[in-house]
Design a protein that fits this description.
With about 190 residues, the protein is of the alpha+beta class. It is about 30% helix and about 40% strand.
Length: about 190
């Protein structure tokens, strides 16, 4: 009797199969969706995620072609490769969707986010706020005698790190735009 052979990527769920099934590993993906800029399109795209129980980590939408009336939706979501492929296929079936790109699969992408931080404090805390802002290249966009509002752009990790440092000093409020992303290099 020959031993059981399991092909890589097999979905066998045997207790003896100690190799992880990499198709079950969830990954973070950034999707770029070019759509018609008309009422209800965003609701249909978001409805696809909500109706199937997919989570959205970040969502940005803006018109990118005024004459062609097209908008770009950038969605960051988490799922298995099969789930992400299913999301892309289902997005592509929506009539008002022109293009769907999985920037994570297509190659390296540039991702940036904008955030505003309101931080309150007095005395030495104000000096520490300004020092940290300088290190993170954050700009002061509003200042009072008791608070600063900083603007910072960068990766989500950079913004998270800035928030972690500002929290104990006196972070009052934060607003984030969500991720904007483009693939690197030429078309």
């Amino acid at each position: 009797m020959s031993p059981l052979k399991i092909k890589q990527g097999s979905t066998s769920h045997s207790a003896y199969n100690l190799r992880p099934n990499f198709s079950d590993v969830e990954e973070r993906h950034t999707l770029a969706v070019l759509v018609e800029n008309e009422p209800g399109v965003l609701a249909r795209v978001i409805g696809l995620f909500a109706g199937r129980g997919y989570n959205i980590e970040s969502l940005t939408v803006a018109e990118v072609d005024h004459t062609g009336h097209q908008s770009r939706i950038t969605v960051v979501t988490i799922g298995t490769p099969q789930t992400i492929n299913q999301i892309c296929a289902q997005l592509g079936r929506i009539v008002t969707v022109h293009e769907v790109h999985d920037l994570t699969v297509e190659g390296r992408a540039v991702e940036r986010e904008l955030a505003l931080f309101k931080v309150a404090g007095k005395g030495d805390d104000r000096m520490e706020m300004l020092r940290l802002a300088d290190v993170f290249r954050a700009n002061v966009v509003d200042s009072t005698l008791e608070s600063f509002t900083f603007e910072i752009t960068g990766t989500s990790e950079k913004i998270d790190a800035f928030a972690d440092l500002m929290r104990p000093i006196g972070l009052v409020e934060m607003a984030r735009t969500g991720i904007a992303a483009l693939s690197r290099g030429e078309v």
